[in-house]
Amino acid sequence: MTIEKGAAWGAVGVTPHECVVAKDEAATASAVQHGATHVWLESGDILRALGLTVATGALKVGEPCRLLPCDVLIVQLDDAAPVFAVSSVVIGSWRKPQMWVTTGGFLGALNVAPRAHVNDGLIDALEFAGTIPLRQLLLMRRRMRHGDHLPHPLLTMHRAAQGKWPTSPHGAKSSAVIIDGKQRGRAAQVTIKVRPDAFLLCVPMHEA
């Protein structure tokens, strides 16, 4: 069950022997796509969203930990086979951004979607309008560090259980796609669906 307003998130448990240690979010997504149910994440934007920069301490099977349910994104580029993402889908280049999709709200140091939560059953997709002047982009990114870039006439935030790019029926030229920090080539159409409660993130008790 996804997180509910005012309710406690996750539970106290023990780190199971089948817990997978993932060095980053791309490794986490791959592990979950191949059946992993418990993941110990060592670095990534999800940890930043939880107030951590990196996981501290080594994985210790049988030790108490917090078990935090997390969603995954099922991403399809054009007609290719779907792939999993646990944190972000970035469409477009740095100079010509098209759409930034996130589960936890962060892309690096940028608080792209302040309302996002990794277990709310929703994607937060920030859409950029047309070609934005460089000066405007730099100002946007500066404000994103504090999460106060919205509202903005050139930005639209979409929150839903599924989404697509481009959002207009007129289509768009193919754009570069980065999923969980890894280049995935180019696509003219991207569809994204949320799978709630897809895995449990294991977090040390002293960090939860």
Topology (SSEs and partners):
Layout: E1 11-14, E2 20-22, H1 25-33, E3 38-41, H2 45-49, E4 64-77, E5 83-85, E6 88-92, E7 97-102, E8 106-107, E9 110-111, E10 123-128, H3 134-144, E11 155-160, E12 162-165, E13 175-179, E14 182-187, E15 190-204
Characterization of the model:
The chain is mostly beta strands and 208 residues long. The chain has 2 domains: 11-71 and 197-207, no CATH class; 74-195, Tumour Suppressor Smad4 (Sandwich), CATH 2.60.200. It has helices at residues 25-33, 45-49, 134-144; strands spanning 11-14, 20-22, 38-41, 64-77, 83-85, 88-92, 97-102, 106-107, 110-111, 123-128, 155-160, 162-165, 175-179, 182-187, 190-204. The strands form 3 sheets. Strands 1, 2, 3, 4, 5, 12 and 15 form a 7-stranded mixed sheet that branches. It has a 6-stranded antiparallel sheet with strand order 11-10-7-6-13-14, with no helix packed on it. The relative contact order is 0.24.
